[in-house]
Amino acid sequence: MKNKRMQMKRTMKGIGLAMILATSCAYGQDREPLRAVDFRAVKPDGELMRRQNLQMDHVFRYQTSQRREGGKLFLDLDKDILGYWADRLSVDEGGRKVLLRYSAIGKFLEAAVCYSASTGNPSIISEKNRIINALLASQDPDGYFGFIKREIADVDDNSHLFVNWVIHDGVYLCMALLRDYRYFGNQSSLDSAERFYSLVMDNWAQAPEEPGVCSPIGIIEAGLRLYEITGKRDYLDFATNTPFDGRYIRDGVSPQLETSPVHATESKLSS
Prior knowledge:
This protein is mainly alpha-helical. It has one domain. 56% of the residues lie in helices and 5% in strands. The protein has helices at residues 2-29, 46-58, 77-87, 91-97, 105-119, 122-137, 166-184, 187-203, 219-230, 233-241, 265-270, and strands at 63-69, 72-74, 244-245, 257-258. It has a two-stranded antiparallel sheet with strand order 1-2. Strands 3-4 form a two-stranded antiparallel sheet. Strand 1 and strand 2 form a beta hairpin. Helix 9 runs antiparallel to helix 10. The longest helix is centred in the N-terminal third of the chain and has 28 residues, at 2-29.
């Protein structure tokens, strides 16, 4: 009796899944394919507008436990973030002064670029440009930017690239700069992103393979976005063919394999 009940459940589940699949196929036959919509053409309202305005009010302020402003806790952006990118810290100093040695400046700057593009707000655009100019001014001739300084004088040694979140910080900054190029046509932003990413590609052989040492999260997305914008095959080959295995900030966790997109991505990007 028990076996019959289980068999009946499997049968009913199979029938249900078949009906869902058939309905989905029939529903999609006469529909137009999905197309990407430029976010700048979307005009939010209601609750979405309220949240967007709240985010824009705080987009240039880092919340933290170190400083107080009007009863809330915020960092001093110029001193505690941009200042470190300009003057840089040793690995030990970075561990003491910056949480997890990670500034997240690329993610916040990408939001600022998007809000600048979608709203056209002069004050946001001006502040976005000021921050980008400060970051580009901090970039070394070989393409390196970050708040961890070189500990070794040898110009061929780029081990500082692979300290904790340096690459992660860098590639997300690249993505913000690529959006700045796409929406505002700033060639210097594109050039800067290309120089940093090329430095990573040229030195990837130095990357440690043990887990818990450095993070390559975002490196695939940045490479694909560079390829999409420039059409340079080197970016696509690196992003899709390099196994970014084991290089994660995950202490005590065995190496993980971050699956690279298959090369079919090329046809998707170029279509």
